[in-house]
What we know:
One of its GO terms (biological process) is nucleotide-sugar metabolic process. This protein is α/β, with parallel strands linked by helices. It has 13 helices and 12 strands. It has helices at 11-23, 62-72, 86-91, 94-116, 120-125, 158-177, 199-208, 228-241, 258-272, 303-309, 317-330, 332-338, 342-350, and strands spanning 2-6, 27-32, 52-56, 76-79, 127-133, 181-186, 188-190, 213-216, 222-227, 247-250, 255-257, 285-288. Strands 3-2-1-4-5-6-10 form a 7-stranded parallel β-sheet, sandwiched between helices.
Amino acid sequence: MTILVTGSAGFIGANFVLDWLAAHDEKVISLDKLTYAGNRQNLASLEGDARHLFVQGDIGDDALVAKLLAEHQPRAILNFAAESHVDRSIHGPEDFIQTNIVGTFRLLEAVRAYWNALPEADKQAFRFLHVSTDEVYGSLSPTDPAFKESNKYEPNSPYSASKAASDHLVRAYHHTYGLPVLTTNCSNNYGPYHFPEKLIPLIIHNALAGKPLPIYGDGQQIRDWLYVKDHCSAIRRVLEAGQLGETYNVGGWNEKANIDVVHTLCDILDQEQPRADGRSYREQITFVKDRPGHDRRYAIDASRLERELGWKPAETFETGIRKTVRWYLDNQAWVNNVTSGAYREWVGKQYA
Ligand code: NAD
Ligand code: TYD
């Protein structure tokens, strides 16, 4: 048995593959383009593991995908590959359209051809799981109920609009062609291997480097945070038992304002790695210009996943965030590696 995982050198994809191979004796084909966000080092512990094959390539390269499918005959495909950073989508939306929309479309076409030719039993058992975001639902007011699967799509950034388009394509391939698809819409993840362009790893990295901790606007924007390994366990559960054609919201029941997340990070760092001058990392907090079109609040109602499939997160925000800070303190070589070169150009442009 084999699964194919796209975007597996990125943050969530890498955690997924590492967790999968720690628990299953099933071959994994990794397909990743290795953009700035993809890092072979994330999968370094799998070097020499015969159950893992890494292929550098684009989900939009239908000839390559068709070849991989024919050669390895996967029973499932998990699509993590995407351009994923909202701020980058504001500076340059084109790559988001190309990978998240056109790439997903080409992948679906290659998968449809492969699936159509499978023997009936394999056809029934096959799954295409598309990993998406809660950002497709838009922004909530402080009193709105959390996003349910039935909320209408109201994406506000080029990133979320491109993810919404990919979700619609996946849905259409089920309704039109019968492709056995599943979609998950998850809230903000955090944990090991998170690229330090996103809030939590950026704050940890800047704090330790003695740099300003940039808070957009008033810092009162709210996100729901989920430890990445809980997202991976939810995806495994949906793959195993999800109803075909359905979508599942995944969340941590952890709504936090950005400024509170940053205060928590500073307080943990004050304990774990105090500043040389004995002062708090909170002194590095700097309010900067807000993100254009910044969504005010995301909150996710994951009760369907809990009720129908029995999934619950294992970590609270308090336990997960401590583990995350510890991971960054213990993995400074990884951080140094990913923050060289192109990363500096991005930081220069975004925080100038
Ligand atoms: P990431 O940016 O860390 O990783 C994306 C990976 O995809 C990288 O390894 C990159 O090289 C690869 N990739 C990009 N374009 C590709 C292409 N055309 N072909 C093949 N590979 C390509 O992203 P992430 O945070 O790991 O997110 C993974 C998925 O989960 C995305 O689909 C994202 O929308 C979704 N998601 C992320 C979050 C979050 O908080 N990070 C929350 C909910 C959903
Ligand atoms: P981010 O990690 O980029 O995830 P997303 O935009 O997908 O939710 O940002 C999380 C929140 O943190 C978001 O409200 C924007 C805010 N933010 C800052 O205040 N400063 C920063 O430097 C970054 C990167 C994000």
